[in-house]
Specification:
The protein has 277 residues and is of the alpha/beta class. It has six helices and 13 strands.
C-alpha cells in the first residue's frame, strides 16, 4: 500500500491582502482532480496571523476547503519567531494560545501504513515556553513507540541551510542547540527525510546524510536582491509517496497557472527587510 501526501507551504493567506488567493484557488481546483490521502501544511498559512487573528481564522477556513484530510504546523507568520532574532513578533504565550484556539494542536504524530509522521512546531524550539517541553516529550514518545515504522519529520523551518553543525544565528533554520537535540532524539534511526518550508525555495539535498526537502511556497518568491538563491525559486508543492515497506518517493509538483509572485513587486506587504539566505 502507498500513502500519497501532498505538502504545501507558505500560503500567506489573508481576507484583506488577497494577492495569493488566486494560487490557492488554483491549487484547490487542481487537487480536486486527484485528491491525496493527506495534505500536510508546513507553516505560514497566514499573512500575519501572529498579530491579526482574522488572518489566522481566514487561513483555517481555507484549509477546511481542501478535498482531503489535513494537518498543519505553525510558521513565524502564524505565531511569531525566535526572540533571539530580535524581531517585533516574538513567539509568546498569547500567540500560541491564539493558534490553539483557531487551529488546535501545534504538533502532531500520525501513523500511515509502514510510517510514522511527526510534525513539530519549530517556532517554540528554544523558547522556554511550556509548549516546548510538551513537544519534546511528545517527540521522544513518538520515536520510542514507532515500533519499526519508518519515520518522516515535518517542520516549518528547515533543520539547517548547509550542515547540521552550523552555528550561525539567522532567520532561516532551526537554531542550535535545539537542532542538535532534535536530531539526537531519533537516536540511531534518523527519519527517512525531513520536509520543511519557510525558505521560499525548492531544494532536495542531504547534508550530513540526512535528506532534507524544502517545499516551495504557494504564495511568492523573494528576489535575488533580498535573498540569494541556494535552491530554486518556484511556486508549487511537493508530493510524498510513502510505501508500506518504508521506502518513499518525493518530488516537486508544478501545477499549471500558478502565478510567480515576487515580493519585490509587493513592498507594502512587508516593510521590514527579508533576511539574506
Amino acid at each position: 500500500m502507498t500513502t500519497r501526501i501532498l505538502q504545501i507551504s507558505d500560503t500567506h493567506l489573508s481576507p484583506v491582502h488577497t494577492h495569493f488567493q488566486s494560487n490557492y484557488e488554483r491549487l484547490l481546483e487542481w487537487m480536486s482532480e486527484s485528491p491525496p490521502d493527506l495534505v500536510i501544511v508546513t507553516g505560514d498559512l497566514s499573512l500575519d496571523g501572529a498579530d491579526q487573528e482574522a488572518d489566522l481564522r481566514f487561513a483555517a477556513e481555507q484549509l477546511a476547503r481542501l478535498p482531503a484530510p489535513w494537518l498543519a504546523l505553525p510558521g513565524n507568520h502564524d505565531v511569531g519567531d525566535y526572540p533571539v532574532l530580535g524581531g517585533h513578533q516574538p513567539t509568546d504565550a498569547t500567540r500560541m494560545a491564539r493558534w490553539r484556539a483557531v487551529l488546535g494542536a501545534d504538533h502532531f504524530v500520525e501513523d500511515v501504513p509502514g510510517w510514522r509522521l511527526i510534525g513539530l512546531n519549530t517556532q517554540t524550539m528554544g523558547s522556554g515556553l511550556p509548549e516546548e517541553a510538551a513537544q519534546e516529550a511528545a517527540l521522544h514518545a513518538a520515536v520510542a513507540g514507532a515500533a519499526g515504522r519508518a519515520t518522516a519529520l515535518f517542520l516549518h523551518k528547515p533543520l539547517c541551510q548547509h550542515r547540521l553543525d552550523d552555528t550561525v544565528v539567522d532567520y532561516w533554520p532551526v537554531l542550535q542547540p535545539a537542532r542538535t537535540a532534535l536530531v539526537a532524539a531519533f537516536g540511531a534511526t534518523p527519519p527517512r527525510f525531513v520536509a520543511s518550508g519557510h525558505i521560499h525555495q525548492w531544494r532536495d539535498h542531504a547534508p550530513d546524510g540526512l535528506r532534507q526537502i524544502w517545499a516551495p511556497p504557494l504564495s511568492f518568491i523573494v528576489g535575488e536582491d533580498r535573498q540569494p538563491s541556494i535552491g530554486s525559486k518556484l511556486i508549487g508543492l511537493v508530493e510524498h509517496l510513502l510505501h508500506e515497506d518504508g521506502t518513499h518517493d518525493s518530488r516537486l509538483l508544478l501545477p499549471e497557472r500558478l502565478a510567480l509572485n515576487d515580493l519585490s513587486r509587493l513592498p507594502h506587504l512587508y516593510a521590514r527587510p527579508v533576511a539574506a539566505a
